[in-house]
Amino acid sequence: MAIPVLEPKIFACSQSKVLAEQIAKAFGADLGNVIRSTYSDGEFQPSFEESVRGRRVFLIGSTHPSSENLMEMLMMLDAAKRASARHITAVLPYYGWARQDRKDKPRVPITAKLVASLLETAGATRIITMDLHADQIQAFFEKPVDHLFASTIFLPHLKELNLDNLTIASPDMGGSKRAYAYSKALESDVVICYKQREKANVISHMELIGDVTGKNVVLVDDMVDTAGTLTKAADMMMERGALSVRAICTHAILSGNAYERLENSKLEQLIVTDSIPLKQESSKIKVVGCAELFADVMKSVHENKSISEKFLM
C-alpha cells in the first residue's frame, strides 16, 4: 500500500519571518505556527504548534550574526527531526559564517564547514541557499545542496535600467568569475579591482585593472558588510572618469558605519535582495525580492522537478 504524500509545511525562524511569509504566499501555503519561549536569562525554545509527522518541512531562516540566528535554526531542525518529519529542508537565504571557508592562517577554525556539520547533525536532509561566499562550501555537506544564484532576479532588473556603455566590475579578484558571468549575460566589458587588506574589513590598498572612462559601472558582489570596499571602489572609479557607479550585492549585512559610508560616497545606488532584513532605510538602497525564487525552487523540490533553470551562473 502506497504511503500518501502529504502537503509540505513551511515554518519561519524569527529573524526571517517577513521573508518567510512572502515565500509561503508565493508557494501557495500558509506559514506554520511556531512559537518561541524565552527564559529570563535569554535562553529560548522554539516549539511547533502543529503536527509535522510524515511531512516535508521547510524551515526558513538566514544565519547572519548574532549567533542566536544560527542557534534558532539548529533548534528548529532538531525539533522537526524529533517530531518525525519525513524530509527537513533548511532554507538559508543567507548562509552565515561563510567567509571562514579555509585556514588563511595557522590556528583558526573553518567555521563554514563547522556550520555545515551542525546543520546536518541537527536534522537537515537538504539545504537551499543563495549566493554562497565560495561555491566550494557545497562540498562541506554530505546532504544535497541547492545553490541558487541571485543573478536570476538581478539580471532582469539590470536590463530594465537600460544603461549605455555598461561595464561590470568586481570589487576584488575573488569575485572575477561572478563579474565575467554577468558581463557575458549583458554583453558588456569587465574591470577588476585589486585590493590588499590590512586586516578584516580594513583595506590598505586598492588598484583598478581596466578602463572605466565614460562608462556606467555596475559593481557585483555576493555581500556588502561595512561597505568599505564598495564605496572606495566607487569613489576611485568616478575619479577615473566613470559616468556613474552602481552596485549589486546579494546579501545586505551593512554593519558598523555602512549606511553612513553609502550616503557619503559617490555610489549612485546599491541593489540588494531581502535575504537579510535591512536595519534602516536609505534612499540609495533598492531591494529586489527573492521570495518568488525560493518559492519556485521549494515547489520543484517537493514535486521532484528539475531546478536547473535557476542556475544561470
TrEMBL record:
Give the SMART domains listed for this entry: Pribosyltran_N
Q: Which GO MF terms are attached to this record? A: ribose phosphate diphosphokinase activity
Q: Could you tell me the EC number(s) of this protein?
A: 2.7.6.1
- What are the UniProt keywords, alphabetically? ATP-binding, Kinase, Magnesium, Metal-binding, Nucleotide biosynthesis, Nucleotide-binding, Transferase
Superkingdom of source: Bacteria
> Known Gene3D superfamilies for this protein?
3.40.50.2020
Q: What class of enzyme is it?
A: transferase
InterPro entries documented for this protein: PRib_PP_synth_CS (IPR000842), Pribosyltran_N (IPR029099), PRTase-like (IPR029057), PRTase_dom (IPR000836), Rib-P_diPkinase (IPR005946)
Chain ranges of the Ribose-phosphate pyrophosphokinase N-terminal domain: 9-123
The record's listing under NCBIfam families reads:
PRK01259.1 (NF002320), ribP_PPkin (TIGR01251)
The record's listing under PANTHER family reads: RIBOSE-PHOSPHATE DIPHOSPHOKINASE FAMILY MEMBER, RIBOSE-PHOSPHATE PYROPHOSPHOKINASE 1, CHLOROPLASTIC
Q: What is this protein called?
A: ribose-phosphate diphosphokinase
